[in-house]
Amino acid sequence: MATLTLTSVDVEGLADAEEMRHAMAAAHRALRTGSAVQPRPDALPVGVDGTADAPAVVPMSALSEELGLFAVKVLADAPRNRAAGLPAQRSTVVLFDATTAECVAIVDGRALTRIRTAAVTALATDVLVAPDARVVSLIGAGPLAAEHARSLRLVRGFEEVRVWSRSAARAEACARQLAAEGIPATAASTREAALDAADVVCTLTPAQEPFLSRSMLGDRVHVNAVGSPPRPMFSEVEADVFRDARVVVVDHPAVAVAESGNIRDAFVAGALDPTRLVPLGDAIDTAASAARGGLTIFNSVGLGIQDLYAAHVLCLRARAVGAGTMVAIRS
Fold first, then answer.
1. What's the whole-model pTM score?
2. In the CATH scheme, what is the homologous superfamily, with its name and number, of domain 130-303?
């Protein structure tokens, strides 16, 4: 048998943001209807020092009955890599036939994760944000921020994309890159300037301590809390933002409680009741008039089912155009 292998360069060439967003909607509807299985991942710590930024390996698995596939993504999360100029996360997604157990594909996770994460955020934004939203603020200026700008512009006609980072040079570089692509992006001089009168705020940082408080936000703003890695010691959003939110949507409640520092901190502070967490699969089938308005939050930690559906879409496209490499991994 032969297995399709896709590098991140392959993924970059194959991925279509609209198609990926529809795939993410299908993934979350499958969770809602029970035709997909999403176990809660358990991180495997590397070493026993117990520090917040110690390396960890996170096996992320999922099964889709409608696709007849299951997937395992192995995510190596090493925050200390940033200090050495290395990627903080590395991952590989392996796709299997659910009936025969045949290894269908092996996909490098770098580009896949970035693109499907932005697609999920765009999906949530489409559900929770009014059509007349005009200003989006990106807190963070890495590749994930640029990908979010591209995906979000497909669901809302943002007239202004503000980019802010602790590194002014990175914010300016990100804004220039987006502007060259025809996206109306500018680098904000301060975080406050980035947030002022924004309709949508996306936190896209690896912060260990929360920095976004209720006093920084208006009464009709949507927050996409995306940047924190899947470990509860990292958070970006203060508990008071969750306290005042009209609705808090998560990709999966059990996974969010286990892995999101934002969610767990809000629970500990008494600012958020677990019963208030709305799965994204439920939200996308709620009438828009009921989902939108006031302060809303989408808190994302990433799911194996998202990786599965993303890999499936990429494999279909690769086979259609003859991309990727077929490798015989078993005679």
1. 0.94
2. NAD(P)-binding Rossmann-like Domain (3.40.50.720)
